[in-house]
Specification:
This protein is α/β, with parallel strands linked by helices and 278 residues long. It is 41% helix and 15% strand. It has eleven helices and eight strands. Helix 7 links the parallel strand 5 and strand 6. It is globular and about 45 Å long.
């Protein structure tokens, strides 16, 4: 299985960037993925777009609607991953897909196998019905699929423990209950006790998302003891602005990634941009 967030300098948190597949269009998204690989971003959390997500704020919702308007569906995204993943040396791709929109009318075992065969390094299913959790665990085990699980700091203790045990790719710790783009009132560093508690159940990486939009937020995630920060709405907003201005999304996201990474004196040694398989 893919080794998420492992190949980074000591003291520097891993970095994941969320984007909706199809926003930007898939042909330009290839250039974006190659750029992220060059910049040694650790993970592209790539969503198959779906409408009216109850966990997403307006920026991500508008992005999903743009992608849906372009006709982007699961099969298109799997074809994109199959074309792109062999060209990546460092970047992992975690696929996020919604149960109701993309999976409900497909055979679960077959679809999980297809997702894994495409080259996706991990899978996060949004809105999976509780009655199907056991079947999903069995399908991912059978296919050798690395699972991204999720929980909140306020989730019941057993829910957090189960999420930690289920994580074979990484555990996505959603910083607070609400919608994407909003930061936790006490700050990300205050999640340290939750991170420590989760590590008692699994040694898989822990990545923190929601409200991570600046260099100081990424540093605060590192201070919590988490392995990585997940940046969503802020990057998607940069895509939206650049598309509106008819600019180059790849260049805009490169500048954005460089702006949020902690400086070497804040979080370890500089990252080499020399390609090495990792």
């Amino acid at each position: 299985m893919a080794d998420f967030f492992a190949h980074r300098p000591p003291g520097r948190p891993g970095l994941a960037l969320f984007l909706n597949a199809g926003d930007p269009p898939l042909d330009e998204l290839t250039d974006v993925a190659l750029m992220l690989d060059e910049e040694r971003v650790d993970c592209l959390e790539l969503a198959v777009p779906f409408p009216n997500s109850f966990t997403d704020g307006p920026v991500v919702r508008r992005s999903a609607h743009r992608a849906l308007d372009r006709g982007t569906g699961l099969d298109d995204v799997l074809a994109f991953i199959a074309r792109t993943r062999p060209r990546l040396r460092h970047l992992r791709i975690a696929l996020l897909t919604d149960w109701s929109h993309s999976l409900k009318h497909r055979d679960l075992d077959t679809t999980v196998k297809d997702i894994t065969a495409s080259g996706a390094d991990g899978l996060l299913v949004h809105g999976l019905p509780p009655r199907l959790r056991a079947a999903y665990r069995e399908a991912t085990r059978a296919a050798g699929t690395a699972v991204v699980s999720t929980c909140y700091p306020t989730s019941p203790e057993e829910t957090r423990a189960q999420a930690a045990r289920d994580a074979t790719a990484y555990l996505y710790l959603v910083a607070h209950y609400g919608r994407s783009g909003t930061a936790p009132p006490a700050g990300h560093a205050a999640l340290a006790p939750t991170v420590t508690g989760l590590r008692a159940h699994n040694d898989s990486p822990i990545a923190v998302g929601f409200g991570v939009s600046t260099r100081s937020h990424v540093a605060a995630v590192a201070a919590s003891g988490a392995d990585a920060a997940i940046v969503g709405s802020a990057g998607v907003a940069r895509v939206e602005q650049t598309l509106h201005e008819e600019g180059c999304v790849t260049t805009a996201l490169r500048d954005f990634v460089r702006s949020i990474r902690p400086e070497p004196d804040e979080a370890g040694t500089p990252v080499s941009r020399t390609h090495q398989r990792s």
